[in-house]
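Re: zinc ion structure - here you go.
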Amino acid sequence: MAMWPEDPATWRPGIALPCRRRTLGWPRLRNSVRPAMSPSDATATVPQLAVAVALPVPLPRTFDYAVPPEFEPRVAPGHRVEAPFGSRRLHGIVLRRFPIAESELPPERLRPLLAAPDDEPLLPPPVLTLCRFCARYYHNPIGEVLAAAVPAAIRRRKRRKAPPALGVPLATVASPAPVTLTTGQREALAAIEADLAASRFQVSLLQGVTGSGKTEVYLRAIATTLAAGRSALLLVPEIALTPQTLARIRARFPDAAVLHSQQSQRERGDNWERVRRGAARVVVGPRSAVFAPLERLGLVIVDEEHEPSYKQDSAPRYHARDLAIVRAREARCPVVLGSATPSLESWHNARTGRYRRLLLTERPGAAVLPAVEVVDLHEETRAVKGFPFISRRLERALRACLQRGEQAILFLNRRGFSTFLQCRACHEVLTCPRCDLALTYHQSRARAVCHGCERADPPPTRCSACGIGAVHYFGFGTERIEQELALRFPGVRCCRLDSDALADGTDLAETLERFRSGEAQLLVGTQMIARGLDFPNVTVVGVISADTALNLPDFRAAERTFQLLSQVTGRAGRAGLPGLSIIQTFSPGHPAIARAVAHDTDGFIEQELRHRERLGYPPFGRLARIVTSGRRERSTLRHAESLTAALRAHAETAQVLGPAPCPISKLKDRHRFMTLIKAPTRAALEPLLQAFDHAPRPPAGVRCALEIDPVSML
Ligand SMILES: [Zn+2]
Ligand SMILES: [Zn+2]
């Protein structure tokens, strides 16, 4: 059995995929059966070679095909081929080639490939290795991983000709802006450059408060990498891929390629092809860019490494930060994880010496950390005899800020106008008929909206449960705050940024520009505005409610709240003007809030780590989660129960918990039950994963999704 050490720095991607054809009991597929010999076959040359091909199907195996002799020069590992699968033709990637006699099937039963259209492999060997690791570690079908690694436009392209040979391209590097580095920046850069020069795999955790100049360190390290003739990969959270970030990178590296799932298929395909040809040697992108076809990789950077969006939670499931570390290890190059508020996992690895910690403590220029004040909403509610969306303290600060001609940001991680609708008579909270979620009233659309399935209906006037009570609106989202600001500060321009505003046609870049130029004085928004944005004239940041994430039934709730508060409050006072952040909360004593107020990242993480250690949660153990879902509650639960029992029989040192309804127990008409596996090590999970593969297949309509190292528990 394979042993997985406990952190990505020491994982080793396997080379061979275990062959599960015999053991898994998949029905023998028609694709491996060849029709009876036709007369013309007798004259054709007999294939000598076979290939194992990964096809984009949700099966954890590869498929063997015979290689017609004329295709032989074009079927090395990484090559794209077309193969018959049942009655379909599918594009796949060659993983292995071998003499046909070594196939487990007799040669006459192997079906021949239909096409091998490309002169050169589609994927370079390092990416193939990474895909294999991703399949094995996260228990993903290899074909699905490869399908995610190559843009659809490239997979389906008719024929890729070998481009004219390029020498090592001279990447265009604009000269760096003449800023003086702080001592911390200089030392961090020197450490990374030493790793680069020695071609040494080393994970550095670059920890620096917001505004301490991490990006400048990244950009200079990338320039050094290019100068050494190697390439660089910069991963950023989806949400931080703003026009502002891109402009800053393009100003320094005009040839940088952006690989983004939001791009049109053609645009993404063209960028991918530029990287593949070696014409672009800097790649910037969100999690899927970890599979970028870069060669001679010299540096990997993961910005905001603690961001949950690095975890892909639909198939194929993986954590891009952890894959980035594996990729750097294979390329023998340094990897930099940057954050103001590191994940507990990375912090733990730095503390135990697996990672090197690089600290940026000063903010460049004269900028200082903003003062942070807390408003206790219990006291405020009592004093003003009602719930204040904007407390007296926050209102005073906003007024003073606006009078000075400065700007303010108001943060609330909840969109909509009223966040729940309740019956006055029977007190029922109205939920979506398809999901176990309260409806949110959106005033701009005059609709009651479910945030699980986005179903939007005209708001009910009568309670749907008792049929008589009137419906009243409670709770507040960003729309409500926008309205409140308009009432209290008439004549002051305010813009709102959240996913509703974007869906309603608000242009992100345009809105940010309106705010930057000073045309608007107030900006209200969700986590969309929490990071990556740098506005020199913002001196006040208000957190309308720090409690929204704190009460989620998820063991990472405190960590998320702390990270979000630290990032939001870091927005104020970044360019020499003194900043003030005001946090409104019903739980001023909670460690996540008290430590964020004190800018005490180290203290918070140490306290939270002790808590996790007591519970055996990551980073002190490994988790796997299986969500069983289906439209019929009883059959879904029955399958979840039998699956859980089967796993429990193989638990050994692991603990199998559940099945229990997920916190969101119904989503889009599917009932959801979860089984949680807690194991001391990744290796201890292995027998359970084998048991999962061998478990009886779910009944029709029931699905089981397995997730290794889950990030969200909802
Ligand atoms: Zn009612
Ligand atoms: Zn719904």
